[in-house]
Amino acid sequence: MTLAWPTDMPRCLDYPTVGIDAVLAGAARAYPDRIALQDGDLALTFAELHDQARRAAGGLRALGVQPGDVVALHMQNNLWYVVAYYGVLCAGAAVAPVNPTLPPAGLHDQLDDVKARVVISHPESVGIVLAADTQCVDEVVCVSTTPSAPATETALPERVLAFDDLLQAQPLASYRVDPELVAHLQLTGGTTGRSKAVRVLNRNLVSNVIQMASWRSGLLTELDEFGGLRMQSAADRGPHALVPGEGVNIAVAPLFHGLGLVGQNVSTLLGSTVVFTGRFDPDRMLADIERLGVTHITGSPAMYYALLASSKIGAHDLSSVRAINSGAAPFDTTSLRSLQSIFGNAWVTEGYGLSEATMGLTGAPLNSLVATPPDSVGVAIFDTELEIRDENSAVLEPGEVGEVWARGPQITDGYQNQPELTAVQFRGGWLATGDMGRLDEAGHLFLVGRSKDMIIYKGYNVYPQPLEEILCSHPAVAQAAVVGETVPVVGERVTAFVQLNRDFASESASDLQLLERELTDYVAAKVAPYQKVRSIRFVERLPVTATGKIQKNELRKSLAADAI
């Protein structure tokens, strides 16, 4: 047990053999009258959410959906997404969360890959489902609009069923979900860039939800007398611990991403109220934090960068926020410290995870004998092992850089219908993450980038993330992404794409030339000669995915196009 381990917490937890339906059932009994979901003037208590989910499960069974079948969820964040999600899981089916912004051709391929029998969509996006015209889909269901998710057209097209009709079914009351059934078919680009579906079993999901809820609250879980999962009661574990039955958060992370879905389940287990406010707007979110008394925030760096750039950042009382966690992509320490100064009562930390590990692998402990370094993503959470290995899979010593390997109960069952890819990434109970990093003596993990993003300059390995960290510490820089530019003789030239802070965004061409020199000198003073940034491209905005990850492939493509 390392010095960085949270004090007064065991290294190992108990993971009951239950499905994710036990999380919702336990919350409904522990917090029956507490608001679970808030969407404008629509609200459901935990007891009502449990009832609606079981009715949705009964309605899906009436459509012929059986345990092991696949139901795709295709809509933006809103209250009915969560009802449909738990309804699918309570029926024993697998949820395939798909990005509602995909064009019909892309959606067709993903629905066909997972063999979805039913798609539950939204009036704003159901037309894309119909245009996808996927043969495996038997039924298309459409939820109602909500204040956070309106639509220009609300009339249901032909052949589309109303989700409200499913909710008229009798609740599916006696069925208990098998922990070995697939809970999520999480669509991801993963480590190869190819779209594939990760098989997240119910036991993987339950394990990771227990791990993350206990990590953030400092409390253990137990089963109630009916087999529902709940948090044990105890005194408040400190100013930054999440308190069961008291939390409030805004659903910003997309629910089609593992960060959003696992986060929703953690909120359910902790009895936290989840509020849906519509498309992310940084000014409105700051106002909502004050209005709602938000206690904790989870999101991607892209969201936090937008909050930091808001002109309203000092106009609201943000003192209710106790904890802020960043995930899904690297977050530079300069911005992390800025966030900490703005949210003075909050504990701002960064975690690490990926879809192939359900989601969470590391985090900063609430209380430990060793402080978490600000450029670290924390230590391995309960029952999770991390190793750093070289290209031959040999384990490296602390301080040495290699690929991060992980093992634990949250490591998933591989890729759906892709045994060869599964065999490459999942070996002997371990997951080869494709991320490069190092461990210190205390067990803190420091990431240096993806293995595929490593730059080879004159035979030297150059990792982007430390260079991005240095660039972002300069007052002119809001965000930075470093990639390799293929050039003769040297192999790959270290090139940075830089998004400037507002005060520097209107610089003239001559001023930008001076700033480029200043930035390259700034980095050069802090790194070895082979690690220097050789070229800088200033951009108005870095391209990011819907989940907040910088699209480095797009940056490399732009360099290749310029070279033609």
Descriptive overview:
The protein is an alpha/beta fold and 564 residues long. Among the domains are: 376-453, Luciferase, Domain 3 (Luciferase, domain 3); 456-563, ANL, C-terminal domain (GMP Synthetase, Chain A, domain 3, 2-Layer Sandwich), CATH 3.30.300. The chain contains 15 helices and 29 strands. It has a 5-stranded parallel β-sheet, sandwiched between helices. Helix 2 crosses helix 3, helix 7 crosses helix 8 and helix 9 (282-292) crosses helix 10. It is globular, with a radius of gyration of 23 Å. The protein starts with 20 loop residues before the first helix and ends with a helix.
| Mean pLDDT score | 93
Distance N to C terminus: 55 Å
Rounded to an integer in angstroms, the radius of gyration calculated over CA atoms is 23 Å
Q: Based on CA inertia axes, which overall geometry fits?
A: globular
The appropriate CATH architecture of the domain at 456-563 is: 2-Layer Sandwich
Q: Walk across the major sheet and give the strand order.
A: 4-3-5-6-7
The number of distinct helices, counting runs of at least 4 residues, comes to 15
Uncertain stretches: 190-194
CATH class of the domain at 456-563: Alpha Beta
Q: Helix- and strand-based class?
A: alpha/beta
GO molecular function: acid-thiol ligase activity
Pfam family, one: AMP-binding_C
Domain AMP-binding enzyme C-terminal: 467-549
Protein name: Fatty-acid--CoA ligase
